[in-house]
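Hi support team,

I'm filing this because I wasn't sure whether my run with zinc ion finished correctly. The job status page said complete, but I'd like someone to confirm that the output block is well-formed before I use it downstream. Pasting the exact inputs I used:
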Amino acid sequence: MQIQFLAAASGSFGLIALAVNEDALPGDLEPALAQGASRARFTGKAGQVFEGFVERGGAVVRAALVGLGKPGAADRAEAAEKAGAALSARYLTAGEPTLAIDLTGSDLTAEEAAGLLLAARLRGWRYDIYHTKFTDEQKTSLETITAIGAPEGTEEAWTIASAVAEGVEFTRTLVTEPANIIYPESFVARAKARYEGTGLVVRVLDEEEMGILGMGALLGVAQGSVKPGRMLAIEWKGGDEATAPTAFVGKGVTFDTGGISIKGAAGMEDMKWDMGGAGAVAGAMLVLALRGAKANVIGVCGLVENMPDANAQRPGDVVTSMSGQTIEVINTDAEGRLVLCDALTWVQKEYKPATIVDLATLTGAIIAALADEYAGIFSNNDDLAAKLTAAGQTVGEKLWRFPMGSTYDKLIDSPIADMKNVGGRYGGSITAAQFIKRFVENDTPWAHLDIAGVVWADKPGATFDKGATGYGVRLLDQYVRDVLEA
Ligand code: BES
Ligand code: MN
Ligand code: ZN
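And here is everything the job wrote out:
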């Protein structure tokens, strides 16, 4: 979807939407809109849409009103996003290729106006490439959104917001693609292709190199698949050379059958999005590059497919991680932590990050606790946890903090190895986090985001349709802005 700007209304649009404040319809509205809106109980609440038709210059024009809520409201930025998203949700397949949004009378800031357009674009994203039989009504018709009379500075704000849109869309594409299309090698290939010309530097480790480095935990998961695993590092050096980088680490299980501890058939297709953490990292790195972030960030994606073939690891196997710590693999379906632990050790040895944030669709237990409303955050550092939570709040990707501690940690002690890969019956998201924490060196500030409940949506949300949400991209980008670029 293209976003364009016009200083004042000119030319003809199939559809024109006027952004209005709550309980404040402009006095010069055509009666068809003014009276129509009031009879339809349209008051201008955030995201409310009224659609009508008016005659202008002898032609019938499809006209809409969209609500921005109350001016000066604390949630004004969110309200602007709701308005943009509501318009594209409503008009994506409505038969009009162009939509004009008239912001002339609105008192939005440039950032809020750019947020409105960002939300319109994100809500209008679809991945239809495998549909060969869509009827015309099913196809996306909306191609261009033109902002009319946007506040000064909106175009500059949009150059940044559009970088965010590119990143979210890249992540959603990776997450949406099925596992016969996106597997470790093709994930790397997609990333390389997308990063061409952005300034991002990509490094890839194959299984032989990971073997030499001693990544027995990650390779133990990968060994049950004919698709070889990969470690992908994405480097963005936009900050001072002397500043230690921040590391974003993602779980990239391109398909999770559970391995020998195989999952049930019902819903197993969802496990194509078990690479959502790696997807978020890949998309966030794209945002940082496209908007030229003044920060040093390393993205790492641990990429494997968890399959149960003849060479798959068995429950009870003991593997040695790159850190030297040994792990008894009680359940081959608790594979994400086995991938993350070696990715974590590697990024610490290789890049000496000042801060580490990992993202993973790690546990079903986090969905039991939080549903799709919040992702879980676990951290050894209150300040980092607070900053990530605040960044998430700003962009509508919410985090809820969970406790950690030595009594939880003991639950993963093993009689035969340094630890086992599952805890007891309860607190599954916490014991998973305790496992990862054992691989954080020197108390480096670290946070783990369990995003299993928020990567994929069963119903449309604020800025996404059903399907891949792109969760994490905006959050990480906002964290970089708030903390690393402040
Ligand atoms: N990828 C799953 C977690 C998951 C479940 C994500 C449902 C999204 C939706 C993970 O690898 C897994 O299988 N976790 C197990 C851990 C258990 C064996 C300790 C789980 O949560 O059941
Ligand atoms: Mn699993
Ligand atoms: Zn998994």
